[in-house]
Amino acid sequence: MEIRRKVQAGTMQSSDLMVFIEPADSLTIEIESTVKKQFEHLIRARVEDVLRRMQVSRGHIRLSDRGALDYAIEGRLEAAIKRASTED
Predict the structure, then answer these.
(1) Quick one: pLDDT at residue 88?
(2) Which own/partner contact pairs does 45-54 have at CB distance under 8 Å and 24+ positions apart?
């Protein structure tokens, strides 16, 4: 999928996350998390898996995490990608 516009999905509530996506020439992933020291590698692996599955190869992906579980990370990221790939 092609990232065509800037979008966001999610909330800043506890056990949730906010995903921000915008078009870019290359793929970058930025993770801010309350549990970054312990779980950044697992969050990054989950994000990369979703991006690979949805065939996203370009875009700036930023996550602001508040301890979200895997299913929330996947759901929020998928929703943001789908929103970002459509035209207004």
Answers:
(1) 62
(2) 46/70, 46/73, 46/74, 47/73, 47/77, 50/74, 50/77, 50/78, 50/81, 51/27, 51/77, 51/81, 54/1, 54/78, 54/81
